[in-house]
Amino acid sequence: MLVTRSDDGYFPDMRFFNPRDDIAILQRKLPHWSQAGTVVFITWRTLDSMPRQVIDGWRADRNRWLNTLGIDPTREGWKTLLHEQSPELITEFHERFTTRWHNELDACHGACVLRRPDLAEIISKSLLHFDGHRYEMMDFVVMPNHLHFLATFPDKQSMLAQCESWKHFTATRINAALGQKGRFWQQDAFDHLVRHEAQFARLKDYIAGNPAQARLRPGEYVHRSHPASDPNRPR
After folding, report:
1. Is pLDDT of 28 > 90?
2. Per-residue pLDDT reduced to its tens digit, 127-167
């Protein structure tokens, strides 16, 4: 069931990940988990956002760490095995590798064309175009070479289909504005099913603080925080 807003615009029944409910896992370059109606944190990055040497170093360190747990990161299902570990080990993984990955994005590698307000606006308008109909869009930030957003989707198939639609539309419009052709976005995205309200609040804060973390000036990013997604809002 899709998370819906009450008459005053508040999301009264935000649903978080439940390991006992049905989960769809699609294996591409990265494994993608989806669960109907569950809040998900998604990151896309531009094709030139991460130098090859940075990716190779990060992946080698991650793989060595996973191997110490007996997890083979080259085989399908490694993410499932990771999430079967203790909460302390899962936290350590994110502190070591997810945080490091996002810090590299914030270093603003590549051309960073999304600093241009007109190009960032293409993305922000696209994210909101079917808001409340095909999905519920909560918070997002468009950074110079990537974006993060929190949203919910009505069923297991719709998240990836909608992301493909967004990516195709925005890449076509942005490439036309830049007078170029070819792939604009990295093929796979990072997505994470939100586990609980405290994690949701942390991700909202992360999205809001990402421009300052990357030392961006006003006009170099677009941030939208939907007041209805505030877990501290009086109900």
Report:
1. no
2. 999 998 999 999 999 999 999 999 998 876 788 889 899 99
The domains of the chain are located at 1-49+112-235, 52-109
- Confirm if 121 and 222 have CB atoms less than 8 A apart: yes
Residues 6+ apart with CB under 8 A from 24: 33, 34, 35, 156, 157
> For the whole model, what pTM was predicted?
0.80
CATH fold of 1-49+112-235 reads Alpha-Beta Plaits (3.30.70)
